[in-house]
Each structure stands twice: as C-alpha cells, then as structure tokens.
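Hi R.,

Here are the chain sequences for the assembly we discussed:
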Amino acid sequence: MELERYRILSRMARGLEKAELVFKNANVFFSHTGEFVPCDVAVADGKILGTGTYEGHKEIDLSGRYLCPGFIDSHLHLESTLVTPPELISQAVRWGTTTFIVDPHEAANVSGTDGIDYILEQTETVPANVYVMMPSCVPSTNIDDNGASLTAGKMKNYLENPRILGLGEVMDASSVVEGSVSMHEKLALFHGKVRDGHAPFLSPGDLNAYRMAGITTDHECVDYAYAMEECRRGIQVLIREGSAARNLEAIVKGIVENGTDTEGFCFCTDDKHIEEIQREGHINCNIKKAVKLGLPVEKALKMATIQAARCYGLSHLGAIAPGCQADLVVLSDLESLEILEVYHKGVKIQRDRETEKIPCAPKLKNTVHILNFTKDRLKLSCTSKYAHVIEMTPGQITTLDKREEVPCIEKNGEKEFEPNRLYQKIAVIERHKYTGKMCQGIVKGFGIRGGAIASSVSHDSHNIIVVGDNDEDMYLAVKELVRTQGGYTIAEGGRIFETLPLPVMGLISDAGYEKVHAVLSRMLKKAHEMGIGEGFDPFISLSFLALPVIPEIRITPRGIYLAKEDRMLKSPFDE
Amino acid sequence: MELERYRILSRMARGLEKAELVFKNANVFFSHTGEFVPCDVAVADGKILGTGTYEGHKEIDLSGRYLCPGFIDSHLHLESTLVTPPELISQAVRWGTTTFIVDPHEAANVSGTDGIDYILEQTETVPANVYVMMPSCVPSTNIDDNGASLTAGKMKNYLENPRILGLGEVMDASSVVEGSVSMHEKLALFHGKVRDGHAPFLSPGDLNAYRMAGITTDHECVDYAYAMEECRRGIQVLIREGSAARNLEAIVKGIVENGTDTEGFCFCTDDKHIEEIQREGHINCNIKKAVKLGLPVEKALKMATIQAARCYGLSHLGAIAPGCQADLVVLSDLESLEILEVYHKGVKIQRDRETEKIPCAPKLKNTVHILNFTKDRLKLSCTSKYAHVIEMTPGQITTLDKREEVPCIEKNGEKEFEPNRLYQKIAVIERHKYTGKMCQGIVKGFGIRGGAIASSVSHDSHNIIVVGDNDEDMYLAVKELVRTQGGYTIAEGGRIFETLPLPVMGLISDAGYEKVHAVLSRMLKKAHEMGIGEGFDPFISLSFLALPVIPEIRITPRGIYLAKEDRMLKSPFDE
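And here is the predicted structure of the full complex:
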C-alpha cells in the first residue's frame, strides 16, 4: 500500500474520518478466535479497515445477520466441468467461495504451459481470487501419451508469478519416496512454497518419506483414521466433497466422535460439476454437511476460511481483520446457513451479472491431431479363444480384468471380434501429436447398442476414446471429434446424432453453460435410449477408462494395461 | 537436502533400513493434532524421519516417558541479563527451550549493526536455534541520545540472512498509525516477513490501523480482554512471563474461564534473568503455570511449539513430523512436567557442557566515550524555591513528578542542591559520541547514603546513569565506568567499593555467570548497607530512570523529561 493511501485509510480505521463502506451491526465471525461478536466492519479500497464501531459514507445494516470471511476451496480443477473457468467461478462465488486454489492438470496434459496460461488468463479478472498450483505429474505416468511434458525447467518461468502458490498434487508417490531425479527437481524448485499431495493409502513409512520430501497437504484422504495419520505428520487434510468423490461424512464423523483438534483440516471440492454447484452450492455445502454431522459451525467456518488461507500462505485472506481483503459472506442465520450476499474486495457479487467471455489463444482450439486413422484400424482380430475384458463396476471408476470367451465372427477369412449386447468395442486414439498410436479393446457392461459414443475428455492424457457396437459408427464418431476439434458425440445408424463441441483443448466449451446443459441433456437421453443404464453417465465413465493408475484394467493408445501387474498387452487377446 | 541423501533417509523412513537413532516406546506429542500417541520416533541427520515402529542403530527406550518438540521462546532480549548470549542460552536450553526469537534492541542502541552482528555471531554455534528480529526503534524516541540510528537503509543488508525473520517490536505505535515515512520504510522493507508489535493499551481504532500496517504479534498484552481484541484482529499474542513482567496468569485465567480458542497464543519471556532461569526454568515455566491454571497440557504445549513456529514461518520446527528438525524434550510425566533430557538436532544437550566463549570484536569493548566530564559539572544550582523531583514508586518502573522544596546550601556565593536522606542527586551522562551532554536531577526514595552507584545500563540508550549523595563519589563512579568501559559500580567515602565490569557494549560481562553472580551479590549487599531498601535492586531501578517513554518524569542527557507533558527542562528547578 502506498504510504499516502495508508495515511488516509489509517484515519478511517481510527474513526477520525468516515469509512468508505461500513457493515453495521453484524454478528462478525472472527476466524482467528472462532467467535461471533456483534460489531461493525469498516471497509475501503477493497480492504478491511477494522472492526468496532464505525460510520461510513455508505452503510449496510446487517442486524440479525452473520458476516463471515469468503470461503476458500483449497483444491479444485476448473477444467473438468465443460464450461470456461469464468463460468464455473461465477456460479461458485454466488455461494460464498471467493478463493479458488486450482490445479490445471487437465489443461497442462493437453497443452502444457499454454494450458496453464489459459487458466491464468481466464481467471485474471474474475470476481474472485484464483491461485494456481503447478501441475506436478504431466504426463501422469511414463506409459501416457499426452500433449506435453511439464519439466522443472518449464516450471521455472512461473516461480515469480504471485498467483502460482506451489506444486500441484504430487500423484506419483513412488517417484517421490524412491527419489526420482525429475520428481525431486520439481519438489526442489518449489522449496519454501506449498507442495500439494495426493497420497491415498500410503503405508506409514511411505507416508513419512513422502512428507519428508516436503509435501504438506492431501485431498485424497477418504477415512478418519488415515486423515489422522496425515494430520499428525503435518499434512493438512483437505476434506473433499465433490461430484464424484465424497469424503466429508467419513472424516467429519470421526472428528466429531473423537473431539479431534480441527486445525489440520480444510475443505475442497476437487471436481464439482457446474449443475451441482448451481443446484446445491459449493464450499458452503461442505460447511453445511459438516455442521449437520455435529461439527460446531465455528470450527467448520475456520476450515473454510483461515485454515485454508494459512495452509497456502495467503495472509491477506480468510479473516475479517484489518488489512485483509474484504471478501465477505452474509449468512441469514447459523441454522440454515443461507447465503444472502457475497462481497469480493468490498464489491457485492451481482447474481445476474453476465459472465465475462475472454477469448482464448487459437492454438488451444486446435489440439486434435490424429494420424492414419481409418475404419479398418478399428477391426479387432480374435487371435485366441479368450480375451481380457474391461468389466465396468457400477458406480465406481475401478474396473475388473476378466478373461472371457467373447463373440467372434469370420469376415474375409479372418476371425474378428463382433460386439453384442454384453460386449462392446472400445478404442483409444492418440490425438495430440499425430503419432498414429491406437488400441482396441473389449468392454463389458457399457450397454450401448446401435451406435457409438466418443469423447476427447479421457483422464489424464485426454486422447480420443470411443465405445460402440459397430465400426461404422465408431469411425464416424471419431471423425466428428476431429472436425469439431474435441467434444462429446453420439453416432447412430450411420449418422451423427448430436455433438457437444469442446473446442478449447478438447475439454471445454465456450458456448456457455445453458447451451452445454441443453445439448448434454439431449445426448444423455439419447444414450440411455441406446442402452446405457439409468444413473450411469457414459461420458464420465468413458473419461476414466484410459486412466492407467486405476485398477484393474485400462485401455491406452499403446495397448491394454493391466494395472495390478503393471503390464501392457498389444491386444486384449494376448495372454 | 541433497537427493542422494534423501534416498538414504527415505529408506530409513520407510523402515527398509535401520535409522540412525530411534526413540522407542515414547508417548509422542503430535503438535499438529494436539495428542499424545505411543510410538517410536526415528531420527537421522538431526531430522525427524518419521513416527511409527522403527529399529535404529542406536535406540533410546522412553517407555513411560513423554516426548515433545523443543520449546520456542517467541520473543526475548539476550543482552538484558549481563551474561553473554551463549551463557544465557546454555541455561535456557537445559529447560527445553531450543528456539529463541531474539530482538537485539539494547545491542543495537549502543553499537548499531555491530551490536546486531555480535548477537548473530555469538549465537551462530550455540546448541539451539536463534533467530533475530531487526530492532525497529533505534533510537527509541527522537529525544534519545544513543549510539546509533538504525534506518531502513542499514537494515537492507540483513534481508537475505535466513536467521533474520523480520522486524522487531515496533514500539512507536504513533509513528505507525500516523504514517511516519521512516517507520513505514522499515515496515515496507519487511513486507512478507513477520513484523512484531509492542502495543499495550491502544484504542480499538488505533489497534486496527496498527494491524493494517502489517504488524501481527504483540508480547505486551497484560490482560485477557485486550488479548482477545488483538487475537480477533489477527495479532498473535505472545504471553509473557519474565523476571519483571508477568502477564501469564491474567491471560490464561481468561482463556480457561471462557474456553477460548488458543490458536492465537504463544509463549515468551521477553526478559528473564539468568539466575531465575537457573532456578526455575524458562518456557517450561510458562507451560507449567498455564497448566496449573487449568489449561490442558496439550494446548499449552501447542503454544510453546507449533503455534510459535507457525507464527514465525519456521516450518521445520515445532513438530515431531517427518523432515522437521529433531529438537526434542523428554518429559517425566504430564503432572510434574519435569524435563529429563533435551535434544537439539538429535544431539543430547549435556548439562555440564562448558559454554562456548566466542571472542567479540574489540570495538564492542570500547563504547564509553565521555567528553568534558568534571566534578564541577555535577553541581546543581538552586535557581528557584521548588524543584521537579523524580519520586520512585516502590515495585514499579513508573515514577511520580513532584514539585517540592528541596535542601539547598550556599557554597562560594551560590545556592546549590545538597542531597540528604530523602533527596539524592542523579545524573545522566551521554557516553556514546563524546557530545558532552549531561543533566543533573533530584530523586526521592532511592535511599543511598555516603556514596554513589553508577551504571552503563540504562534503557534504551544506555548512557551512564549515576545516583549519590555527594559529588565526589558520583564523579569517582562515573570515572570508574569510563575506565572499565561500562559496568555497575559503587563508590563510597572517596573510593570505589567494587565494580562489575560490563565491557561488551557496556551491557554484558564476558567473565562468566559465576563471577558475575558473586560480584553482584557483594555489591547488592553493600548497596543495601548504604541505605537502599530491601527487595529493591538499585541497578535495575537505575536502568529505567532514563527511559523517556515511561511516565511521569525521567532524566536524559538533554534534560529532565516530563513524559505526560512531553516537555524537556534544562534543570529540575525550571518550571
């Protein structure tokens, strides 16, 4: 702050002059002490001047209301929900989340540093604070074919950026504890900054070695006992409650039952879809659920504010304290915790405010680069009696590796796999670097009939993944995604039914949430008509089938991957 | 950590190889969760490798014992206790304090950056972690005549020193809130680092403005209500329990009675004399007293460890967590909290270890520079009937400004003040820069008869201060301190009774604690024989009589200072 300006603000803080804006008679949540105290809050220049008794040029009476610091989502991915970052944020901020600590892992896997720059640019002027953790595992594994490698060398340019807080979720725990050079280069680069973890199910000794490498957070914790193992070691547990992964109940129940010290916990969403945010809220949901489970509201609010701010070194956030940013949430009461108003830097968030459209670099809309893809290459020769089949597990992203006799027919003197109601064909086609790599496999339990579904969203490398019961429609679907440079598509009976283009890196639509929602609804309806089970989202399910780190069997452009055995097959018919 | 070394330590942490040192079967205090959990602690290279079940090349069985992180004194002055920094620390570390956050305010007032360098050098190799806060108010006020001015420009060279954590106690609150250029230059220089406060009794508005300037700690808080005012504003309260100022009971009682969240509190000693440390302990005393007042031991231990570490950004301290420094305290039990053993970087503190003697720069032993001082200049002419008298307040450092008729006699045709049993003469003589400035005054309640007492320790500028009932002895005493280049001395009947030389900056003896203690005991005995009341330390009392910020009346080389009126008199006989 300029000294001259400080002098003016100091006079306001001291009550010698009227403040710009005063919230009168609020029950103010002091996050440092975890108390509500009735008083006024003075604001100017988007900052808190002080608490006490104040007069302002503008006064807002909050008698009977509760005023809290804005909430912090301590870990999330912005690009997982099909809309642009400003759209997602404009929804979430209405629910009181004013700070987002994002890991642009998907964007980086497609477009490397351009993807990170995209996230930084798109969030520069949103009415919220967006900080970025540098994705640590791009590519995710050494068997991935993704769009870019993010080495420590490439990360260096970001060190001075004040919005880059540290290193993103370090998923490759074994590289950490084994002391891999490239991993430790990245860890060393972010020495003195936050290094986020991703460490479910490590043994106590491995967790010690992982923590010793400097990793101090984890958002993958799913139960109370493991959460305590992490907390004791000084690993902050970011309790996750998103669309898919919901860990809050298990952890908070344990906290409540054991009267646990809650300093070691924060809240995050990791991945939460925009429609759910719109319907039920964002970090305010974590707070509400925690309170419902018996956590005192003061402790839940500390997790959502000061504890996250402290964990990420954001000393100007998370508190209604002099000098802190005036990010504020007005709550109706402490039972319903209804969000009445949200302020960012002292400015009220307008619910009907149109979301900013920030153009993106043209190269980010040109990321689907496929070589030598022909319908013929979708053929799958039956080279033995049994095949490794990817069996879907309902409601889970894990799969089962089954060796089964699958339907084969003779075509032009060759035995070929022939999909039926039970077994469908699946293929993954490398789409970043014209490598021409692709692989076909067999999936059981997907259920599609009379067509194909394809997507350019497939974790973490985001190659084209397609599933269907006939090569013609599968071929059409893949070609359609080349045309639209990414998206979701359904082909049926030799023609494209409908496509949701996701032209930004093949991950994000810039057509606006309403449009996305309308198209997606029609496509999901159609997918279910084509045999996909109700309560089963084919696009989300597809998006995980190429993720090699999840057990038991996956499909990648290099072949069928057996995760438990760490073994790659060229064909599902290989032993 | 070098990667190669990490790999080896990682194998130990994972239990794949024996650790260097294992503490077996301890009740380990996990400061992040505030719990004791029985387990082993593995150590190598002075670091914690992990907690769990371990085997070690060396194993120490701690069955039935309690193992805690080393304690942190979050604010203290090393130079206030007459012995060298290594001596003080070697006493305190035996009681479990392994980290000291020191403010070399006195050293800087005498010798500027040389004084700060002295503290840094003397503590470089002690068996403890010593961090330094840059003294912010040198000189303390603009009416002080001290040895050096510490401007932001001079502080710049220290910014990169990893042992300099920030700006020391900012006593001049009014310069802060009024926006003084030189004060804000210093505050700005330490932006992003810790800026310690010193803010007793600010109004709520001033406290807001003070906090808005970036100040985030205070150790001057004396009651619970004010502590909460500070905590709510994000000012960490360092609960002080030293030799003179004892604030713990008032604050902790409030915490216990109100069930207050204790995250916003740490412990400090500020000033604690070596004999008291030797007798009763150091930060362990704060812990014990707090527990006795009803604070759960876990909360007290958090204040003494992780909370202080967090407050000062010392992420490698304050916890028994992988990667943290192996500073450890073994406690007998949770009732007596007896300190059995202390480890610094995994090495046991030997109680009989001889304190290191680190030579100091010769210029630091040559700091008493007096000009034109003659016995004649001690004469005090009675220019009016009434004089401003400095009345001592028993047990307090405050004084009362009394206008009284004092004894005067005629000598050589002039009326002169003549000390008696009630009124004695006092003088302060500038001793840093040969300015020749000096002033005489009248003190009531000091009680010395038949001699004089002089000291080169007088806060904050540390000029020579002398009190006596005759000019001859006063003159002798001052000359003696010039000869010894600082110290305490007593003159009686025309000769020096004894002197405790404090040759290092006129503040510190390098003769060793035993010697200091022996000399000081003889001198105190003598002082009491000469009329000083029992339970009254003439040297400590003298040391505060030149401190202009304390009400009501002080003596400085420039004159008699009336603190309430902010007015300087050339002579006590002025109106």
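The longest strand of chain B covers residues 19-30. Chain B has a mean pLDDT of 96.

Let me know if anything looks off.

Best,
T.
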